[in-house]
Design a protein that fits this description.
By secondary structure, this protein is α/β, with parallel strands linked by helices. It contains eleven helices and twelve strands. The strands form three sheets. A five-stranded parallel beta sheet has the order 5-4-3-6-7, with helices on both faces. Strands 8, 9, 10, 11 and 12 form a five-stranded mixed beta sheet that branches.
């Protein structure tokens, strides 16, 4: 790089002086450079959670532990990768297709019994849980970090509750704009699916989503009644819920045995999801005369949806759920 000589510095100084005189003679001055105002610093926020508790959350939340899978999804939706997740392997099996896990979170135990020591070791800024734990459990967690408790579900307003929980996570973490954007995208996707359903001649199709379990050699069926999130979502797309029974006041889940399925309409499609090889509907019920005698089963209207879509999840999971239903039913006249 060349160095300036004293002469060159003198010439530059002279030129600068001449320029200043010329500007002064013209009665003008160099306009002041524009400055960009500094971004306001993030501040602590206080939100009211599902317990009715005012939770004060520090500014600049980054390290968050999620104790329920829907909380994981909500956090990712607003741009936060949790540093700790309850039952990482379970999440990847049951939810990882609809809402793939981001980052490499530490496993902090099970969803029902998270490890206090594992959570404390992460020194999180915030812990996000779902309603249903006892006060003592919250007290142990609050000794580590603020705890934000989501409603998780409410059979009186299932879809609205899910969206409000997402908004609450956004408000608590500075991601409310991202939450609202995701909700708008979800609602637009539902409208697109509704148009596909109408075009395919599937509008008004009766669906009954259910889980199946084998306990002590007995098959138990858990139908999703009115008030459950899944029927609330698929009804938005033009389907109807074909399960006539009632569900619990929080999740809208019912309970029946195989004989109870005789209450289904003949044209109701049974849809379900499981993980891996465990499939009660395909295996344990294959030789059950009540099951095989159901008109809808005889008509081939039983559909296993793809693994890995969390049935109690957020906007990404529910969008994937609708897509899976349409893909499963589309071949049906």
């Amino acid at each position: 790089m060349s160095q300036r000589t004293p002469l060159s510095r003198s010439l530059l100084a002279g030129a600068a002086a001449l320029t200043a005189l010329t500007l002064a003679a013209c009665g003008t001055t160099e306009p002041a450079a524009e400055t960009t105002p500094a971004e306001p610093e993030a501040s602590a926020v206080t939100v009211t959670d599902a317990r009715g508790e005012a939770v004060e959350i520090p500014a600049g939340v980054e390290d968050v532990v999620a104790l329920e899978w829907v909380a994981v999804e909500h956090l990712q939706t607003v741009g936060i990768e949790p540093v700790g997740v309850a039952d990482v392997a379970g999440y990847e099996d049951w939810a990882g297709v609809g809402a793939p896990l981001e980052g490499e979170p530490t496993d902090v135990g099970t969803r029902t019994e998270p490890s206090i020591d594992a959570i404390a070791a992460l020194a999180p800024d915030l812990i996000v849980a779902v309603a249903g734990r006892d006060d003592a459990a919250y007290a142990d967690l609050e000794a580590i970090a603020p705890v934000l408790v989501l409603q998780g579900a409410d059979a009186s307003a299932p879809l609205e509750t899910m969206l409000d929980d997402l908004r609450l996570v956004g408000e608590a973490t500075g991601g409310l704009e991202a939450a609202e954007s995701a909700i708008a995208d979800f609602e637009a996707h539902v409208a697109e699916v509704a148009a596909e359903v109408e075009e395919a001649g599937l509008a008004g199709t009766s669906l009954a989503h259910m889980d199946g379990y084998e306990t002590g050699g007995q098959v138990e069926i858990r139908p999703y009644a009115d008030g459950a999130l899944l029927p609330a979502v698929f009804e938005e797309a033009g389907f109807v819920n074909g399960w006539p029974g009632e569900g619990d006041p929080q999740y809208g889940l019912g309970a029946t045995d195989v004989e109870g399925l005789t209450a289904l309409g003949d044209d109701t499609h049974i849809i379900y999801m499981t993980v891996g090889e465990r499939d009660v509907f395909r295996d344990q019920l294959a030789s059950n005369e009540i099951w095989t005698g159901l008109p809808t089963v005889q008509a081939g209207n039983v559909h296993r949806l793809p693994d890995g879509i969390w049935l109690f999840g957020g906007v990404d999971s529910m969008a994937a759920y609708l897509d899976a239903i349409v893909a499963s039913l589309a071949p049906t006249p």
